[in-house]
Amino acid sequence: MGDQLKLLEDIEPLHGDGKEHLMVIAGPCSAESLEQILCTAHALKNAGIGIFRAGIWKPRTNPDSYSGPGKDGLEWLVKVKTETGMCVATEVATPEHVNEALDAGVDFLWIGARTTANPFAVQEIADTLAERHANNVGVLVKNPVNPDLALWIGALQRIYNAGIRRIAAVHRGFSTFGQHLYRNEPQWQIPIELKRRISNLPILCDPSHMGGKTELIAPLSQQALDMGFDGLMIECHCNPDKALSDRQQQITPEALRQVLHSLVMRNKLPLNDRLNELRQQIDLCDDNLLEILSRRMELCRQIGEFKKENNVTVVQTDRYNQILEHRMKQASELGMSSQFVQTIMQAVHQEAVKQQVVILNTNHEGSNPIQN
Ligand code: PEP
Ligand code: MN
C-alpha cells in the first residue's frame, strides 16, 4: 500500500513478559504512597508481571482531584526496581518530567492522551529526549483524546525523530460527550488503520481507561488480542476501593492474574489452506460488492441528471427514509445488525448526494464551481 509509513521502519519489536509473547504493563493509576506502590508491585511481580506502571504526575480533569506525588514519588519507583527487579513506567507531559524521570532511571515513559493531542507539548518532550540521547528508554504514545489518527501518528513521528526506537502505541479509546457503555469509545478501526500504515509498530490496549469499569477489562483485553494487539496496559491497585484516582476501573493483582489466565491467545499468521480458501471467497465477495456499488453510483448519477433537468432538490427525505427503513428491516432478516446496515446505507447515500450535487452545479462547458 502506497500510504504505509516507511519512516518508523527500524523501531524495535516489543519483548513480552506476560502470557506467551504479550507485553503486560500493570500498576496503579496514581502513585499514592511508598506502601501502596510496594504492596502492589510485589503482588504483580508474583503474578508474573515484568513492567510496573504508576502515575507520578497526573493530568486530572478536575483541579481539585489528586494529582500524584510529583517528583518525590520517583524514589518509590526506584525502590520497586531494586526490590523486585521489575521495569518501571510513568507518564510524562513536560521536559521537566522527562528529565526527572530519566534521572531516576525510569525504563518506560508514556505520553498521555491529553498530551498527545498537543503537538507543542509532544515536540518539547521529543526535544528533551534528543538532548539527553535517551536512546535506551521506551516511549509509549497513547492515542489523542479525539479520534484523530494523523495526530497520533504525528506524535509517534516526533518521538521517532528524537532518536527513540523503542516505541509503541497505546490504544485507550476516544472521549465523547455523555454517558456511554465505555468511558472512552474503542473505535477499533483507528488502531487497525494505524497498524496497516505502520505494520511493525507494536500496539498495546489500555482496557482500564477504555472501559472505565472493572468488568469490561477482560472482554476488552480479549477483543484487543483477537485483533492482534501486542500487549496490554492495565490499572491495578492493592486496595482499589481506597484508590485516590480511577477507583472504578482498578483491579487487584490477583484479579489481573485471573484476567490474564482467561485470555485466549490467537495466532497472527494465516495458518492453513482452509483460511486461504475462505479469504479467496472473501476477495470474490469484495469484488462483487465494489462492482455493485459502482453500478448503483452510475444509476445515482443518471438520477442526478434527471433532477438537474427538472430543477429538483438532490435530497428527497421521504425516499431516503423509505430506503433506510426497508434495508434495516431486511438486515435483521438476513442475520445482520440493523445498525451496521444503517451505517452502510448512510455512507452510500452521502456519496450519492455528493455526486448529484456536483452534477447539478456543472454548467454546459463542464466546469463546476464546487469542484474547482
Ligand atoms: C493513565 O494512564 O493514567 C492516564 C491518565 O491515561 P490517559 O492518558 O489514557 O487518560
Ligand atoms: Mn488512570
How would the blueprint of this fold be written?
Blueprint: E1 23-27, H1 34-46, E2 51-53, H2 73-84, E3 87-91, H3 95-104, E4 108-111, H4 113-116, H5 119-131, E5 138-142, H6 149-161, E6 167-171, H7 189-197, E7 203-205, H8 207-211, H9 217-226, E8 231-235, H10 253-262, H11 273-310, H12 317-333, H13 338-360
Parallel strand pairs: 1-2, 1-8, 2-3, 3-4, 4-5, 5-6, 6-7, 7-8
Structure, explained:
With 372 residues, the protein is α/β, with parallel strands linked by helices. It has 2 domains: 2-262, TIM Barrel (Alpha-Beta Barrel); 273-360, Chorismate mutase (Chorismate Mutase Domain, subunit A, Up-down Bundle). It has 13 helices and 8 strands. It has helices at 34-46, 73-84, 95-104, 113-116, 119-131, 149-161, 189-197, 207-211, 217-226, 253-262, 273-310, 317-333, 338-360, and strands spanning 23-27, 51-53, 87-91, 108-111, 138-142, 167-171, 203-205, 231-235. It has an 8-stranded parallel beta barrel with strand order 1-2-3-4-5-6-7-8, surrounded by 5 helices. Helix 5 packs parallel to helix 6 and helix 11 (273-310) packs across helix 13 (338-360). It is elongated, with a radius of gyration of 25 Å. It starts with 22 loop residues before the first strand and ends in a 12-residue tail after the last helix. 33% of the residues are buried. Phosphoenolpyruvate binds at residues 29, 55, 59, 91, 112-113, 142, 172, 206, 209. Manganese (II) ion is lined by residues 29, 209, 235, 245-246.
